[in-house]
């Protein structure tokens, strides 16, 4: 029986690339999305076209009730959940901290911190041998912003990813003896639609000369790191944070 992987925010960008590569590696993939059902169904169709198994599951992963429903729906469809990629996340309009509203900060922390933490909770309850599970693997998607701070752009986003790094370290140690590995990737500047949402579609081109490798990355290059961390090849990695940033 194939193992089941839930990827949050898998209708485009890094999540969609990870879904395709994970399916090629033998995972049956639960493709979560928030609103773009057509895009999510395209990812599912592409996986099925290459002979894999996948299904799409709507849920806003900044909402606890929808997260609980999402995990129940995936378990009902596939029978089990063996892997989780906490990928859904967003930046915010470029701004200095002295203009932030409380509402902006709360929205950021709900989606980028509380959501992944609650998804980890649901995963651990199903995977941990302490709860009668068979073990599992979690990969969190952080950002190089957690090291850089995103001054003048979105410090709230950078801080939310700092929380993801710490969540990864702490949870890895908490469940290491319960059959669960927990790791993170820290992408740098990657060519996806996230930059247009924060108001700067040309961000990667503008900043690529500041990247030691002199270019932005492709979502497939991040997906490859995630799928490796999910694999048995990474069997002794837990609490690891892998930079995928061209040296940035
Ligand atoms: P993206 O292209 O904007 O894709 C975001 C995905 O998340 C979409 O599938 C979107 O689905 C989904 N999503 C957004 N809000 C959601 C919610 N509340 N509930 C469920 N799904 C939601 O972003 P990306 O660049 O691939 O980013 C993926 C991850 O990588 C994020 O955590 C991001 O912070 C991180 N990252 C990206 C970069 C970069 O340069 N691109 C760098 C470092 C880290 P819908 O379209 O249906 O809303």
TrEMBL record:
Annotated keywords: Oxidoreductase
Alphabetized Gene3D superfamilies for the sequence: NAD(P)-binding Rossmann-like Domain (3.40.50.720)
PANTHER family: OXIDOREDUCTASE, SHORT-CHAIN DEHYDROGENASE/REDUCTASE FAMILY (AFU_ORTHOLOGUE AFUA_5G02870) (PTHR43639), SHORT-CHAIN DEHYDROGENASE_REDUCTASE FAMILY PROTEIN (PTHR43639:SF1)
Domain of life: Bacteria
Record's keyword annotation contains Oxidoreductase: yes
Pfam families reported in the protein's UniProt record: adh_short_C2 (PF13561)
Similarity field: Belongs to the short-chain dehydrogenases/reductases (SDR) family.
GO molecular-function terms, A-Z: oxidoreductase activity
CDD domains xref list: SDR_c (cd05233)
Organism per entry: Aquitalea magnusonii
Cross-referenced InterPro entries: NAD(P)-bd_dom_sf, Sc_DH/Rdtase_CS, SDR_fam
Stated name of the protein: NAD(P)-dependent dehydrogenase (Short-subunit alcohol dehydrogenase family)
